[in-house]
Design a protein that fits this description.
The protein is an alpha/beta fold. It is built from 10 helices and 9 strands. The structure holds nicotinamide-adenine-dinucleotide.
């Protein structure tokens, strides 16, 4: 007897940054739901190992998302293998340049933006090249809560992630006429190698998970599977009426304000206005 059809059965997908973290979680979820996936990542070892593990469901193509030739090549490989491209997930990323703006070097800025924004542009561009003649397809890009508000990430990262959301809206407007949907995901803190590197606890994922849980309004950490579930929804026909949207997946952190904890814990009688601590006129 035939098994249950997956939610994206037989769809062909390319996932950049698919060798680790959110990308790896999404590759696994997509394959489990019937898709055939090209894992496009800089990291040969883990990318090839994941493709081996997933058998017929996945192939690995070593890709640097800052290179137009590489990104075009990964997409062309999907078309050569499977004849089409249904889902493009532009997800590869790094933390990039950190520190005060006055000390940020132009080289560090350019390198960060090349991976986080040029890389997404190239994925969108070459996916559109294939999807427009097909008159179908779904493009998803990973932004961040740092792409929605300031203060949650370093400057170049924040600027690039805001750019991902702008590009998503702009291209959704153009490609709707071709029946192509274009959406973004804005994850909050998620337990991955990148988040661990950003916090300085690279080897200790349990500690990382605890730290994220402490800062989470829901009291528990987000994992790659939580973001993969959002990607699956946006990749499937369940979201057929959604385009130009940014889906925030952050336990309510941005909805609660930037640093909710001190304010939640503060006693009445104190007001915080425009950065100043003043007396409240309301009684306790
Ligand atoms: N982890 C978080 O807390 C968090 C929060 C918001 C957004 N994000 C975003 O999620 C995405 C995935 O990050 P993650 O947390 O899973 O990190 P990760 O480090 O586990 O995975 C990132 C992957 O991108 C790949 N990559 C990096 N530079 C590349 C390049 N030039 N070309 C191709 N591949 C490259 C890496 O090899 C790695 O496999 C990123 O865009 C990141 O900015 C992460």
């Amino acid at each position: 007897m035939a098994g249950r059809a997956g939610r994206i059965q037989d769809a062909v997908a390319v996932v950049t940054g698919g060798a680790s973290g959110i990308g790896e979680g999404t590759v696994r979820r997509f394959v489990a739901e019937g898709a055939r996936v090209v894992i496009a990542d800089l990291q040969q070892g883990p990318g090839a190992a994941l493709a081996d593990e997933l058998g017929d469901g996945a192939i690995f193509v070593q890709t640097d998302v800052t290179s137009e030739q590489d990104v075009a090549g990964a997409i062309d490989r999907a078309v050569e293998e499977h004849g089409r491209l249904d889902i493009m997930f532009n997800n590869a990323g790094i933390v990039g340049a950190v520190g005060p703006i006055a000390q940020t070097s132009v080289d560090d800025w350019d390198r960060t933006v090349a991976i986080l924004l040029r890389g997404v542009f190239l994925g969108v561009k070459h996916a559109a090249r294939v999807m427009v003649p097909q008159r179908s397809g779904v493009i998803i890009s990973t932004s961040s809560t740092a792409g929605v508000v300031g203060g949650l990430g370093p400057h170049a990262y924040t600027a690039a992630k805001h750019g991902v959301i702008g590009l998503t809206k702009s291209v959704a407007n153009e490609l709707a006429q071709h029946r192509i949907r274009v959406n973004a995901i804005a994850p909050g803190n998620t337990v991955t190698a990148m988040a661990a590197a950003a916090s300085g606890s690279l080897d200790d994922m349990d500690k990382m998970s605890e730290m994220i849980a402490e800062g989470s309004p829901l009291g528990y950490a987000g994992f790659p599977e939580d973001i993969a579930n959002a990607a699956l929804f946006l990749a499937s026909d369940e979201s057929r009426y959604m385009s130009g949207h940014t889906m925030v997946v952050d336990a309510g952190q941005t909805a609660s304000g930037l640093v909710p904890t001190p304010f939640h814990r503060a006693r009445n009688g104190v007001l915080y206005e425009a950065g100043r601590r003043t007396r409240s006129t309301s009684s306790d």
